[in-house]
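Sequence in, structure out. First:
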Amino acid sequence: MHQPWQPLAGIRILDFSVLLPGPFATAILGDLGADIIKVEPPAGDFARRMPEALFRVANRNKRNIALDLKNADSAAVVARLAKWADVAFETFRPGVAGRLGIGYTQLSALNPRIVYCALTGYGQSGPWRDAPGHDLNYLAAAGALMFSGHWLGKPQRSGLPVADIAGGAFAAIAMLSALLERDRTGRGAELDLSLFEAALFATAARHGLDLERDGRAHMYPTNDVFDTQDGQRIALGIVEPHFWENFREAVKEYDHRLGDPKFADEPLRRANGDELSRLIAGVFQQKTLEQWLAHFAGHDVPVQPLVTALAGSQCAQAVAREAVTEIDGERLMAFPVFANGRRGAAVRSVTRTAIGGDSAAILGELGFSASETAALRDSGVVKFG
């Protein structure tokens, strides 16, 4: 097996984050070779009690230590972790990290070269800084939920936590940028990102910031999901005119009305979108999903069946691209990049199930003696898995 692309080998990340956005960010960096120590409270990351795959997937390639930051004696461990790290990352509400002794002021005093990143709901400043929230709230506040995903029907949320995933990805980009700057200047940085702004940034990229009209103004009636005769669903991805012409030619025998001049160009297809959407729906009702996929073969029409994540990960394209890694019986997907013509990032280890499963090894690496380690265990500062 070829050696994976690990450009971040040697970069050390101290990860205080929980749930999805933060661990997703550091999972990307871990896939690319970074050495990550995840610090969990003695009760563990709450994600451990959520749907099982979430915690395992977002915390691969990480070691974990369970540390009671509310215990003042944890300061000795935090000090050594801060000196060990290139990056410290947290997702607490504003002010909490400082009260726990892991804020930027405290850690940068211990390590002036440290890159410190805080990813919060609404940011470290502003009137909403202390407001609670989750992905749905950030999307709503950013205007993202005003846009429908279908030509007919009301706007609905995505099944994917878009703000969480975007926010985590943006945090990873910001941390890498700060590391690059540090290599030039020798100075660390304090980074402040928010999930609300991640959602607003994504909305702006797709719709701009001045759209105050029809929530489907960004949609195409020809770019939608339709039911087939056998109750399956198919995604029709037509935006460009040539794809419309290819589709119309492929299905002309099933409904001649699609050739009506009122559907001749995109402005007309939008103006008559409700009717067109229903006509296309009627066409797809005339064959099963498999029949339609066979029918469109060779017509250069962008169609895909709606499948489960399992089916998607097992399809011929995913197999050809070596998208899925199996390690210790776990099927995972590393950060999706090819480097120099080969699959790049790698899952090197799966998440330990025990809270504090690496505590002893990490304390030893940090230079704590056996007696000091025993004292930390006996006092409850550190939990051992």
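Second:
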Amino acid sequence: MSQQPFQKSFGIAGVFGLLALAFFTAACARSEASPPPTPPEAIMQSIRDYGRGHQALLAPGSAEKPDQTDEAYSAHIRNILAQEDFAQLEKIARQNRMEKGRLLGGIWKINAFYNGTAWSAGGAEPKESDFQGLAATLKKWMAAYPESAAPRISLALMYMNKGWQSRGSGLSNTVSDSQWEQFADGTARAKAILLEAASFKDKDPMWYEVMQKVAQSEGWDKAQAQELFDQAITFEPGFYHYYREYANFLLPQWYGEPGELEAFAEETAKRVPEPDGSILYFHILSSLDCYCKPSIVALHTVDYAKIRQGYLNNTRLYGVTNLTANRFAFVASMLNDKAAAHDAFASVDQMEDDIWQEKTVFEQFRTWANTP
């Protein structure tokens, strides 16, 4: 794994811009010492061993469309955690692993489960005291179920969330040394907890996704990040969240080069049978949804018909959410498909800021799509 700070500049409006990741090993004025570094080869061996013996099958589509949103489901899980009903959380986690259930839009329940256990304040931005209270509750869960992976994965994801909040989304030259240190500390804690949970009997698909977040935060070598992805999809081939995490890693503003993300989407669509192939193609390439020049240019090089088919297949099987509708409305607008954009905007309740960047841009394209 690379231990060098990552820096790559590019032109993007809004929250994107010049991004850098710095990895500090020193810690100051902390109540706990940061975990010691683990040799890269030991980390990769844990990744290879994690899914050994696991039977991987593509989950069949549900006979009925889901009707529950991920926000509602995560809030329900968050409420159970607040009540410290750890037995119920254990039951739900096991059920999610076994049934591979989906929520509206195709989001996996197990993913929304951990979003509920690792973020204490719902849609609001948690305070330091919120994180401290959540960590205390998760450690109670760990004490009650010392051999369970679920509370540890929750705590690892919480540390990742806390680290990113400490860093903020500003330009790298606006991030203080203290913020970088807190960011690196959160990543190191998350990685150490995941490695501890790697030997447990419980094997959970979110273990790989949280490790992917660690890989992006630390700036792993591409070969290691790809091996992590390959091991993840061997473990659970239909877990589309792996594809989204790896797609983010391959964005040019992170660690990829122009064209790598598009090639990854094409290879995936050829390898995975329909309807999953086109659905994954849509999910991967919607990583480009940002009203900024590099993304708009890249979208003009992709197979739009396949993106559209992926969105339609995803909607047919799992229904549509505000997020998926925003994503496809953006693609259709950028590629001048007014009819498809009109249909997608009809399912949009509110603008997704990360996609459209500015309210005026969103309104401009929605008005265009709705004009006969």
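Remark: The longest strand covers residues 6-8.
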